[in-house]
Design brief:
By secondary structure, this protein is mostly helical. The chain folds into two domains: 52 residues, Homeodomain-like (Arc Repressor Mutant, subunit A, Orthogonal Bundle); 138 residues. Helix content is 75%, strand content 0%. The protein is built from ten helices and no strands. Helix 4 runs antiparallel to helix 5. The chain is elongated. The model has no long low-confidence stretch (mean pLDDT 83). It comes from Sporosarcina psychrophila.
């Protein structure tokens, strides 16, 4: 990569990070291109040159954010930690992500997700499902998931959660319950079995 491409990439990343920070604090609609430019230390013209419109920038910010989350999740999933520690880290980090969102940005994110054609859906289908199946197998090997529970049944269970979250206008309802829903997903309504 030559110097010009490297500087361009650095500017694009600075703009994406600035926009993400501002969107998470105030929501998409309340943030102007001028505010993003000031935070990224670039001109508004540069933003329009690289991203063409606020709508395009917003879509790329969502992708940028999903990539950041997925990279962190992959590190946890691929770690040498025991199964239960992985589940705890995943549960804790997902509730942390939800707590970082401004409710309006979360709603924008979930509206995009509800289309069924979002980047989140692409990552989920292409990368997350195979990795989750490997996690289920790991949990079975370590005795934390019932050996008789099929991966297909677990995936159907996951799909039910996903289908509900993709319904329009669900986002504001679930945001305050994110930690409870993640705990319910992993431990059920009975809770963690005592050893």
């Amino acid at each position: 990569m030559d110097g010009f491409q490297r500087r361009r990439e650095q500017k694009e990343n600075a703009i994406l990070q600035a926009a993400l920070t501002l969107f998470m604090d105030a929501g998409v609609q309340k943030v102007s291109i001028a505010e993003i430019a000031a935070k990224a230390n670039v001109s508004q013209v540069t933003i329009y040159k690289y991203f063409e419109s606020k709508e395009n920038l917003t879509q790329l910010v969502l992708k940028f954010y999903v990539d950041q989350i997925w990279e962190e999740q992959k590190k946890q999933l691929n770690s040498d930690l025991p199964f239960l520690d992985k589940i705890k880290q995943i549960t804790f980090s997902k509730s942390d992500y939800a707590n970082q969102f401004n409710s309006q940005f979360f709603q924008y994110f979930m509206n995009d997700y509800s289309t069924g054609k979002s980047y989140v859906e692409e990552i989920y289908t292409r990368e997350a499902i195979p990795r989750m199946i490997a996690l289920f197998d790991e949990g079975k090997e370590q005795g934390f998931i019932d050996q008789n529970m099929s991966n297909e049944a677990i995936l159907v269970y996951m799909q039910m959660f996903k289908d509900y979250l993709q319904q329009k206008d669900v986002s504001l309802t679930v945001l305050p319950m994110t930690e409870d829903l993640i705990t319910l997903f992993f431990y059920g309504i009975v809770g963690k079995k005592e050893e």
